[in-house]
Structure formats: C-alpha cells, structure tokens
Amino acid sequence: MRFNLLDTILFSLMLIFVSCFPYSRLGIGLLYQNIIAIGLRLLVLTYYIYVIYRNRIKIFGIANIKNILICIPFLLACFSNLIAYKIDGGQLLSPHINTPIFITEIIVVFLSAVLEEIVFRLFIHTSLTRVGSIKRILGSAGIFALMHLINIVNVSSVDALVSLLIQVVYTFGLGLMLGFLYEYSHSLTACISLHFIFNILNSFIVNYFMNGISERVMYLTAIVIAVILLVYSSLIYYYHLRGNEKYFRD
User: Fold this and answer.
1) How far apart are CA 90 and CA 188, in angstroms?
2) Which residues sit opposite 92 in a β-bridge?
3) How far apart are CA 171 and CA 183, in angstroms?
4) Which of these, 96, 136, 103, 107, lies nearest to 120 by C-alpha position?
5) Coil, strand or helix: which one is 91?
6) Which has the minimum average pLDDT: 53-62, 119-128, 183-192?
7) How many Cα atoms occupy the beta-carbon half-sphere of 64 within 13 Å?
8) 142-177 burial, b if ≥16 CB within 10 A, otherwise e?
9) 3-state secondary structure 19-31
10) Which of 33, 139, 174, 181 shows the smallest number of beta carbons within 10 Å?
11) 68 pLDDT tier (thresholds 50, 70, 90)
12) Does the predicted TM-score (pTM) go above 0.85?
C-alpha cells in the first residue's frame, strides 16, 4: 500500500497539531490538559484507524522467530537510561504522585507512540516503495528525527538548543531500529509496543523516579549501546536477511 504525498502530509500535520497544541496555555489544571490531549489524540487515531480499515492494511505482521532477534538489542536500548543510572549512582526519588495525573500521562505517552508509529512506519515508511529497503529505513528515520525539530518552539537557551539537537540524533537512531523492525517483520503492533516501552523507560520513569544522572554518562551509555546495535543489526541484515526477499517489500 502506497499513500500519495497529499495524504501523507495530511497525516503528518494531524500528528504535529496534537503534539504541538499549547495545552499549558489553556489556563486549566494539568489533569484537564492531559484529558484534552487524550481526546485530541483519540480523534486523530479514529481517523487513522478508518484509513487503515478502508485500505485493508495489515498491522500484525509476520510471526517469526527472527522478530525476536531484532527485539533483543532494542530492549537493550530501552534500558539505556536505567543502565546509565546504575553506572552513575543516581538516586531513586519518592515523589508524591497524583494518581489521576500519573495515569493520564501514561495514556498520553501510549497514544503518542501509537500515532507516531502509524504515521512514520505505516504511512511514511510504506510510501517509500520506489526505493530499496535500506533507503526506506533511512528515509523514514530521518523524517522521524527531523519532525522533533518542532520542539524548537520551546527552546529558550543555548543548552536547550544543544539538548534538542542531541534529541534529534537520538530519535534518528530510534527511527532506524523501528524502521528495521517494521521493514522485515511488517508488524506495526510490535513497533508500537517497543516505542511505548522505550518512551516509558527512557523518559517517563526516569523523570518521575530518578535523579542524579549526569548527561555525560547518559550520552556515553547511549553511544556504546548505539555501536552495539549498529554491529548487531549489520550482522542480522547481512547474514540472515540480505537476499531473502520474503522479509522485504518489493
């Protein structure tokens, strides 16, 4: 299934809208902000599901033992900040958790992972049918990373700008892993699950419950894991997938 350019732009703009909507400027509490964020995401998701159903797109993919091979290093990346926390001797926090806010924030994180995977893997990735598999992975990952530049509207200092640029590079690596997984497993649900786990472990849980992790240790840990992932993915591709066309789209 290949979507035309206008459709793909529309899908992307809808995602940008719900991601950049100025919830904090509504003059209401955080709980109500989260509820509105959930509502908007559900509306967009409803339209996406309609498009998927209308075009009879399969999202469950191929049940194959090789899917597990690519999930193993991905799960290592999901735990990168937790590994950095252990190395750097950070401290566990005991925050006072407002249960309704906590739950709604988890729902927002989940819905964001669902929408992003539908747009970047299902719509954009599969639209790049005229190029090879590696170019599809690089293209969708690059667009996924550049889309995070929309956060520049929140940048107010040089340090914040540097952090944003690092985030773009980091999300490019995330996009490569998700693109590789989707390319040969054809499973959108696997990508959504791993994306959600990644966001929960690397940002949500860390922000809520951990303190004292230096950025240098986090970046060094991420670099080491990135090298491991690059080597592992290269081996999987060359020794298990290259030349085996049934794992790749034509």
Assistant:
1) 35
2) 210
3) 18
4) 136
5) strand
6) 53-62
7) 17
8) ebbbebbeeeeeeeeeeeeeeebeeebebbbbbbbb
9) HHCCHHHHCCCHH
10) 139
11) low
12) no
